[in-house]
Design goal:
By secondary structure, the chain is α/β, with parallel strands linked by helices. It has helices at about 55-65, 85-90, 105-115, 130-140, 160-175, 190-195, 205-220, 240-245, 245-255, 285-290, 310-320; strands at about 40-45, 70-80, 95-100, 120-125, 125-130, 145-155, 185-190, 225-235. It folds into 2 domains: about 35-235, Spore Coat Polysaccharide Biosynthesis Protein SpsA, Chain A, CATH 3.90.550.10; about 240-290, no CATH class. The protein contains 11 helices and 8 strands. It is globular and about 45 Å long.
Length: about 325
């Protein structure tokens, strides 16, 4: 792992370094879209084929923003979707940005470049943010002692005990290790740009690398990276429904043993493939075989005629 560089130079993605803008002395509610004035914060939502969940998610996000006494901006990044994600996003977002390369970190970085607020909040398209959690995150950033952070996560896994245990384990590791979950990350924009944003060298776990980079940047400046333990953010358990707990556990163990595989999109297929997606050439061969439907398997036809062992043995000898 010596010489293993995950973070390209910040200048490769951000032209300049912007400091935090001036905050308003008298807070006020701003529930509508931003038009002319500079926002106090920006929320970035990366979205790839999220037409099913995005509309309701954006409405809930607007409600949370309306409860915060600050002026907010909502930016949705269409990450090369093939459905109506972009059209639906334009109905509620202040701006919609297009990122042609299908990569989570690139989509988040594209949204950060378009954002005008000095404070950044990244929210996944399948995640709901309680108003109290959004307010706590913004208050922490405006307090002058926090560089960024995340929150504990709540996911409804139904009766899947394995998934529930994994979630409890993650929340424990997140709070103790000060690591943000990708579904909800907040930080100062100047710090985000100084560390180069989300690493575009990886296709998964980019929020973990960002958490570590922000901690390093904030430490000499007396700024902490925090994980909020109040009301959790709520994310969908759709990956568990799509692929099952065994696949999730196997994928997690694979990256724990071979962490360098996060640099390969083929091995990060879990974050980029949807049920029914026929675009599978970029998946590892073992994964493609394991996810095939029975109708897609090319099995040899059974031999015609007698099927006893003597007749089969006789045909094999004749071929030789």
């Amino acid at each position: 792992m010596v010489g293993f560089r995950l973070f390209p130079p910040p200048a490769a993605r951000f032209g300049g370094r912007l400091g935090p803008g001036a905050m308003l002395d008298r807070p006020f509610r701003y529930p509508r879209k931003v038009q002319n004035d500079e926002p106090d914060y920006s929320i970035v939502v990366p979205a790839y084929n999220e037409a099913e969940l995005l509309p309701a998610m954006l409405v809930a996000l607007r409600a949370a923003m309306a409860s915060v006494p600050l002026r907010g901006e909502l930016v949705v990044v269409d990450n090369n979707s093939t459905d109506r994600t972009a059209a639906l996003a334009r109905e509620e977002a202040d701006r919609v940005v297009f990122e042609p390369v299908n990569q989570i970190s690139r989509a988040r970085n594209a949204g950060a470049r378009a954002a005008r607020g000095p404070l950044l909040v990244f929210v996944d398209a399948d995640t709901r943010i309680p108003p109290s959690t959004l307010d706590a995150a913004l208050s922490a950033l405006r307090g002058g002692q926090v560089v960024g952070g995340g929150s504990v996560v709540a996911i409804d896994f139904g009766s899947n005990r394995v998934a529930w245990r994994l979630l409890r384990l993650w929340n424990r590791l997140s709070t103790r290790g000060r690591l943000a979950a990708g579904s909800f990350v907040f930080c100062r924009k100047d710090a985000f740009e100084a560390v180069g944003g989300f690493s575009e060298a990886v296709y998964a776990s980019e929020e973990l690398w960002l958490s570590r980079a922000l901690r390093r940047w904030g430490r000499p400046r007396g700024l902490e990276f925090v994980v909020l333990e109040g009301e959790p953010v709520h994310s969908s358990g759709r990956k568990g429904e799509w692929y099952g707990a065994p696949t999730l556990v196997a994928t997690a163990l694979l990256f724990l043993v071979f962490p360098f595989l996060v640099r390969s999109k083929r091995f990060c297929w879990l974050w980029y493939r949807r049920p029914g997606d026929r675009r599978t050439p970029d998946l590892p061969l073992a994964v493609r075989r394991a996810t095939r439907r029975p109708s897609e398997l090319h099995l040899p036809s059974p031999p015609s005629g007698p099927t006893d062992s003597r007749s089969v043995l006789g045909r094999d000898r004749a071929k030789r």
